[in-house]
Amino acid sequence: MDLTTAEIGERIKALRKERRWTLQALGKRSGVSISALSKVENAQVAASFDTLLRIARGFGLGFEAMLNGTPSLPAGRLTTTRGGAGVFFSTDMYEYEVHSAELRQKHMIPLHMEVKARRLGDISRWSTHEGEEFIYVLQGDIELHTELYAPVRLKEGDSAYIDSKMRHAFLNRGKGRAWMLSICFSQDMKLPGRQSASRKFPAGRAARPAARRPAAGRG
């Protein structure tokens, strides 16, 4: 399923209206400014992954539940996502495919990502969110940038594990396309029906990188 910037904005607006919340109310709950929320809802900008995570947290929803409205499942769950059958969205820097999107009660968000940015000047925003993140390069030559460490080049089969609260970003340093698996985890994530702090993060995907066809539309 491919989600455009407009469709994501419409879903967020619908969730807010269902709750009879103003933009100010959602802003207080999510930590996202009223101006940014308005631009996202009206498809004036494509929200970053971090911004979408904060908005989902503000609704008390999991990231995937906000995107596709799937029902929660009981304990003892198993799900599969066929190659190219995840939930797609994009930004100016990355293309995302969300795997296991129908599972809401989980501590990880599996993402298959294409890294599009090639120069430091292409980094329009740095990622930062709760939890920890495992990165595995599926194809290409990817450079990991963080605020505390020197850049690290990662080639196919290489991996990295970082504190997601540390600002980070990725660049494609090869001649061809670059794909990676990103799995973010947090024990602070709020599960439906539990009274705990609401938190959620990025995660990964394992599929044949060359076979997948991402959809455009998020910035």
- Alpha-carbon distance between the two ends: 17 Å
Poorly predicted sequence stretches spanning 5 or more consecutive residues: 189-219
Number of contiguous helices: 5
Overall 3D form = globular
State the order of secondary-structure elements, H for helix, E for strand. HHHHHEEEEEEEEE
Provide mean pLDDT, rounded: 79
Task: Tell me about this structure.
The protein is α+β, with helices and mostly antiparallel strands. Helix content is 21%, strand content 24%. It has five helices and nine strands. The strands form two sheets. The protein has a six-stranded antiparallel sheet with strand order 1-2-3-9-4-7. Strands 6-5-8 form a three-stranded antiparallel sheet, with no helix packed on it. Strand 5 and strand 6 (152-155) form a beta hairpin. Helix 2 crosses helix 4. The radius of gyration is 16 Å and the shape is globular.
Which characteristics define this entry?
9 strands, 219 residues, three-stranded antiparallel beta sheet, six-stranded antiparallel beta sheet, disordered C terminus, 24% strand, alpha+beta
How would you concisely characterize the structure shown here?
With 219 residues, the protein is α+β, with helices and mostly antiparallel strands. 21% of the residues lie in helices and 24% in strands.
